[in-house]
Design brief:
single chain; 338 residues; alpha+beta; 5-stranded antiparallel beta sheet; 4-stranded antiparallel beta sheet; 8 helices; elongated
């Protein structure tokens, strides 16, 4: 533990650092504007650790998420150097403290209670704690402090790489591909074109490989599949075929994808817009138990005027299945508790 003058200086720096953290938790980032929202904002279900190297996207969001991790590393480094404590004691006190701060943010309407923030904050504190423990000598002089900081930086980079890799596996990894027409219907009815008939879209010949939503389906149709959380995503194509455009059809088509009763994606196609290019869609299905597809046509023709083809689902990998199962158990425990 730090003693003497070094201890006093470190305590002062820790106090200033703690004040800065509280400032940004309750005052910074225009927190006062959030008071106008009277609702309590909270997220009790883990969605994932937003930690990775910058790879496109919104840099500001990435920087903010990285800050949630980095800002608590110094606490993990300094507190054990000032006060003798084991890892279990330190991390327990930290989790309780950060949970209270998150709760206060929610109750004061100055922020939201987010379980993901608690996880990533704690991960930063763990990295800081491990950084100082891996430097057993010269901890009370500049040489040792530099080593602790360097060790924490190396651990941080390694942690970001590992968590980012796991995130990529959980987000983009998948198992086998399954054609939608191979799944049994739970409700409704749908016809598939067994001959995989070709057609043209914007004068481009389309030759489906997996399946084709039959043009013999009624203009408004709704059908449901039971997925049981076994699939990670669904992809496919949709368009208004040229022959529909050539008949001077004035109809519009809407394709709605509904997961467990909530609309998660929709496509709007118009036969009179002149823009009948094919549309590729990719829809995440992580944890979805029931998938409903609803197709609405306002064309007076009794059959559908929209083409949907090569609709496939990607099976969830082992990690995704484990995460989905854990989330379901957490939801069950949460709803049982209330």
């Amino acid at each position: 533990m730090y003693q003497g003058k070094l201890r006093k200086i470190t305590i002062i720096l820790l106090a200033v650092y703690s004040v800065l953290i509280l400032y940004f938790l309750y005052i910074g980032f225009n927190r006062a504007a959030s008071i106008q929202d009277p609702s309590l904002r909270y997220n009790l279900m883990p969605q994932g650790i937003s930690l990775h190297f910058p790879m496109g996207g919104d840099f500001k969001i990435w920087f903010f998420e990285l800050g949630n991790f980095v800002v608590f590393i110094p606490l993990g480094m300094v507190i054990p150097l000032l006060f003798r404590c084991s890892f279990v004691r330190f991390i327990t006190i930290f989790i309780v403290s950060i949970t209270l701060l998150e709760t206060l943010q929610m109750l004061s309407r100055l922020g939201a209670f987010d379980i993901d923030d608690i996880i990533i904050n704690t991960l930063g504190a763990v990295v800081g704690f491990c950084g100082q423990r891996l430097v057993p000598r010269d901890r009370d002089n500049l040489k040792g402090i530099y080593r602790i900081i360097l060790t924490a930086i190396i651990l941080s980079i390694g942690t970001i790489a590992i968590v980012g890799g796991v995130n990529n596996y959980l987000e983009n990894g998948g198992g086998e591909f399954v054609a939608l027409n191979e799944l049994a219907l739970k409700d409704g009815s749908v016809l598939w074109d067994e001959s995989l008939s070709s057609f043209t879209v914007d004068r481009e010949k389309i030759e489906p490989q997996k399946n084709v939503y039959s043009r013999k389906n009624t203009r408004t149709n709704e059908f449901m599949f039971l997925l049981n959380g076994e699939y990670a995503k669904m992809t496919g194509y949709a368009a208004i075929p040229d022959d529909v455009i050539n008949t001077a059809s004035q109809g519009n088509s809407d394709i709605l994808f509904i997961a467990d009763g909530t609309e998660i994606y929709s496509l709007g196609l118009s036969a009179n817009s002149g823009e009948n290019q094919r549309i590729f869609f990719q829809i995440p299905l992580k944890g979805v138990n029931e998938l409903t597809i609803k197709i609405i046509n306002d064309d007076p023709n009794p059959v559908t005027n929209v083409a949907i083809w090569d609709i496939t689902l990607t099976e969830a990998n082992m990690g995704q299945m484990i995460i989905n199962s854990m989330k379901e158990k957490l939801r069950s425990l949460f709803y049982m508790s209330i």
